[in-house]
Write a structure and sequence with these properties.
By secondary structure, this protein is α/β, with parallel strands linked by helices. About 30% of the residues lie in helices and about 15% in strands. Helix 4 links the parallel strand 5 and strand 6. It binds iron/sulfur cluster. This is Thioredoxin domain-containing protein.
Amino acid sequence: MALAVTSSSSKAIFGSGFLLSSSSSEPKVSQIGSFRLLERPQMAPTIASKRRSSVKPVNAEPKRNDSLVPLAATVVAPEVEEKVEVEDFEQLAKDLEDASPLEIMDKALEKFGNDIAIAFSGAEDVALIEYAHLTGRPYRVFSLDTGRLNPETYHFFDTVEKHYGIHMEYMFPDSVEVQALVRSKGLFSFYEDGHQECCRVRKVRPLRRALKGLRAWITGQRKDQSPGTRSEIPVVQVDPVFEGLDGGTGSLVKWNPVANVQGGDIWNFLRAMNVPVNSLHSKGYISIGCEPCTRPVLPGQHEREGRWWWEDAKAKECGLHKGNIKQEDGKQLNGNGNGPAHSNGAPAVADIFNSQNLVTLTRTGIENLSRLDNRQEPWLVVLYAPWCQFCQAMEGSYIELADKLAGSGVKVGKFRADGEEKEYAKRELQLGSFPTILFYPKHSSKAIKYPSEKRDVDSFMAFVNALR
Ligand code: SF4
């Protein structure tokens, strides 16, 4: 990723590791903030912040940063005074829960000055840059150039730089690591053995390097992007994963100014403010990542279905480990050689969705169900694989749903769609990834796919009640 420093306030600042540019040479006095974790036995969201009020030098000439060496090392700011303050980010998150993204952004930039940067992916998170611009404060932007982005994304980066008068600080993968990966496994190894290895080299490590030069970062995460995993995102938190400049757990703060904003409202904001957007959006892309690993999605599809869509075909990508499969001598091994096979050729793991109120459909059963124009009652059917962690995660709510619907006139079923059934399910049953949930209305042969990632009972009931 790259940090850009801008700005509407026409200030450029030197940073620890990133160079910010300015459209003006007007000097500005600002604070440099730093923080360290209180000495507690466990990571706590409370951070002791040692702030120094200082006169920050201004970058007189806009200049593109081409080095990760902290520039602060060469520019020493005179200390004026020193005080220690304690920052409780959990409390701050509560205080800011109802604040607008602009307010949150302003608070983040005010608190961390040159030690914070916006992580920009090249998608609708351009809204973060617009908010930062609107605060009138200097800000920095970084982006990860994996080397595999779409041409449209590179053009978009350029457009954004020109629109805001900033220079983004691009982070690149280590050339030796990329070379080793590509020479040993080829350019598209992720289609064969999953995206983790390539992402680790091209994304995660460069990100880690970028964050090591900061004390805080700003992301475009939203709660509505993935209700299963992001529903609890606070607007600010001590980063639970990455380390900042001071090193160690808790040395980095993560700001999520649009955590509470709906995707539709982000787009309304972008339109209202006439913000440039990536041209890939007009081609059906929602989520935008690397070119080989991102594809457009259709209306009603979740954006997640446009990323690494092939991976549900790999049991190991869905949490399958050898320890989950009991090898039984004399039984046929599945295609991966990982364990004994189910009769459909898939791994023989313990079945899930077992309930007296759930009907187990065979291939013939679901073929018949799919052919009928007039059913006695509507059906809800989950296409699943018992080894899939996402299927396992919704097992409780789906069984509860079946119990609730028992006797209501809506049948609830399951069809195991991995192994040999997978091609059929993809071709005939709209299977994209596991789990796929279909509603068969009473008077139509066409099944309706459940479009959401919300897999709680209430969401399922709302879906069923809207269609029954
Ligand atoms: Fe590699 Fe795809 Fe990950 Fe990009 S998204 S780093 S190309 S695996």
